[in-house]
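DATA SHEET
Item: assembly model
Revision: 1
Owner: S.N.
Input lines:
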Amino acid sequence: MHRGRRSSQVIAVSAGATLLLASCANDPGAGTDGEFPNGTVRIVVGSGPGSTMDHLARGLAPHLQDMWGESVAVENVEGANQSAGYHEVANSDPDGHDLFIGVHGTFGIHEHLGNLEPGLEEFEWFGTLLEEPYAFHADADGPFGSFDDLLDDQPIRYGDSGYESPVNPFALTVFDTLDADYVFTPGYDPGEAQSSVLTGEQDVVGRDAAQMLRTGTADDYEVLLVATEEEHPLAPDAMTFPELEDEYDVELPVLDIFQLGFPIGTTPGTPEETVDILADSVRELIEDDAQFQEWMEDNHMSESMQADRIGREVTQEHVADVLEQYEDFGVTDLEERLGNGAN
Amino acid sequence: MLDALLEAIALILTPAGILAVLAGAAIGLTFGILPGLGASQAMILLLPFTYGADPDYAILLFVAIMSAASFGGALPAILINTPGTPANVCTTFDGHPLAQRGEATRAIFISGVACVIGSIVGATALFALIPVISEIITAFGSRETFWLVVFGIAMISLASKGNTIKGLVAGGIGLLLAFVGRNYVFPGERFTGGIDFLYDGIPMIALLVGVFAVAPMVFIGARDYVVDPSVTAGVVAGSGGSYRAQAKQGTLDVLRRPVRTIRGGVIGVLLGIIPAVGGATASFINYLLAKQTSPDAQNFGSGSPEGLIASESANDAKDGGALMPTLAFGIPGDVNTAVLLGALLMHGVSVGSPLFNHELSLVMIIVLALVVGQIAVVLLGAAAGPLVTRVSTVHTAYLVPTVLTFALIGSYLYRGGVWDLVIVVAAAALAYGLALFNYPAISLVLGFLLGVEAERNFVQTRTMSGGELSGFFEGWIVWVLIGAMVVAFLGSAILGRRRATTAAATPGGDAHDTSGDGSVTPHDAGDNDRPAGASTSQSTSQVRESAPAAETVEQPRTWLGAGFAAFLLTASLAFLWAAQGHEEDMALFPTVVAAVTTVLVLIVLAIEVLPGVRRLAGRLDSAAPEAATGPAGDLTAAALGRHGRVLGWAAVFVTMVIAVGFLALPVLVAGYILGTQPRRWRSALILAALVAGPLITMGVTSPAMFWPGAIPPVVPDLVGGGVLPQFR
């Protein structure tokens, strides 16, 4: 009885103290003057610090903050292969204060696997921040000086993180088109997949053309093939798709899903005017902000960050294209198709 | 390499670098002083708070903590004969007698200078490895890495507290837990039971916090003080001779014995490289070796400076050795490096080739931090000796809620997942059960940390060998690893038989537990209201004294131990059954692990309930003298009630935080203190206010990091109004 009374007292005092402490704090709510932005804007990325998405968000944040005069915070919401961050923003208030940076390929696969609610096309995408073609990288000191050398050494050993990796459609298409034997080894961490090429365990790894430049390891790798129509400025010695078509007499179109693209968007239902302000702000940084352009240059993004990819309509069209191409390609049986590597 | 070294030096000399070293030294010192706690707890509590910080500074902080804690643990070992960490057990043998002679300051300086030299030897060894590490790593493909993971788990199980079979069971359960969630090799998820928040797997930080931070509190909170004040009554710090003279004498004691000090360091490094060999083993083996080769052997154990040097130099040097497999292959050498590996992974640092090829400056930071952290803590510790008694006799009524508060906030901050808090309590309860029944929790953690890596390398080896089993057994490195495991297990069995023979010949004979893996056991945590550090002569004698009483609870012990084994059996069978619901590729490795674990648990069950099998296991397993095959902890109703009370409070903390938010914590802290010490209103209010202040500031300035609670809004953004993510 005595113990029960003491517990009641403790609980009552505890509850009172909670309210007292809480009431001491000020309401940090955003302003209400109706103009955008009128409070802290947060950029959510679905990965941890250090990823390209995180890098992009942290590059944009200070410049947008200077432009808007409001705090711009980056938040890493990891989980469910980036979809946790997507859902976090998708379910926020539709006022444009919550932005999300993703990967076209990853979310195209998510959409086809039914993992997104609301769906990818309902999201208010307003730009593709960065887009670079995938490329095959081999050990610069290894036996493959060209893509031809690689084809002469079948089965080709190709490794990556898993069957769902957005690099796989590029690799699978190239190998199938050339009727090349290959062994796909899944399960590498991204960094390990690259290292496995240097250790000789794998022959090639698929990465975007500038990946090795950003990590300062470009000298260690030889770019053998790049998914472009024309010579890529960051991989001038690599074979392009048209060159490969000519040499092997095959057809190999450059698809959107062979590009690593990073779209930025906000909560579905956000007013169009607000989404346009967001798009205009990013476009302005790319086109006119000297400091931001310097940042792009320093990070090897000048070629791949284009103002004409910013805007609601152009991005929504791009998302629709990616989805259509993934549907044509088929993503639900990737494990089986990659497992049948040796023709 | 020189560039990387200079870059590391420049970073350490920045204001933030100096601050990180000093903070690491102070934190490591404090946690080292507190028996039952150590570097791993300090690091795990701080880990989530460094999320988003510059990884270089965060890792600098952690290595400084790691380096500092063992010297911190030497202070209570010298002053009050209670080792702060298991690695300081041998320090009590000669450190405390020196203090009793009025030479505490001399002993502290012997310990400090030996620690610094030991850490220099360790750091030098790590530094020397750098030029050849790339060659070594390149020799380890998927096949070799798979066997290295198996080797690591086997060695941890063999060397940890508890017994080998129970260690392997814990490792198997850890592996199975690592398979929960999205598969990193094949499309799809496994073992989530349809629970959405498990899609990304069991959150690593929440599991580590539960095992290493909250579970020890269950045992520590069951008594009044971290160290009973009666133990410190005869403290002798500061007495006898001038401080300066003793400091000089202590320093010269070490400097006049350079060969022995450096030899201790080398032995520490070599033992540290072997997974599972903790500081306690390193210092114990070096102590015995020093005693056998010293002309001063007769004074060992009664205040010999040489004995103290032997303990401390090896103990600190082993960190450099333990870091080698951690940084090169991601195989932690001990519990501290396991947590450090978690920190590296959380900060996006890839170990192995990427680390040595592209982030060499971070390796240099780690090398330097081992030494500068040690120097900083020695300077701090030399001045802090007299404070040891105050810190180590802190009332648990204040320590437990403070640690719970840090643990819960930190777990939330890691990824903003409020349900992660449930994992903290669940992991703490599991680790409590493991500790109570003598399963090494470090094996579970290592299995969990290496599970994905094990499966990944298993699948890769199988893929590259076209599904042929023989592909797993190619290459000399594989056979060296398999041979080393066979030798280790055979050696263990032979040692077990010898020990059994010796014990039979010497009634009451006991062997010092030198595993020192840092994982919590009731002995470590000082259960039964006795001071921590079961390996000291003092507490060993207490164990002996309590043995007759323990016999009276043999039946409950047996059945409780069998009940816990049955729980683990159910878990492994559940994984085995669930694995069959997946396609072959996804099911294969979990099926193998679950099947092996199930067989091992069945053996444990037989050991628990069949005395004959128990005796046989005791004879075969050097890590498992017969007593250790059964439960380790106090299983009386009173003890279980005390433990249950703390676990209950942990559950209340989690429930209230999920419902009411972080601002429930000050109230809960006060509630815990008043529930334990009803008259301590003033202390309760002060500590509650100390917790509330930073939390309110955090809520106002960083709302994205603040959980306001799931109840309807009461105070906007601070109490109520949080959106609770779907659990299912």
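QC remark: Chain B touches chain A through 60 residues (CB under 8 Å).
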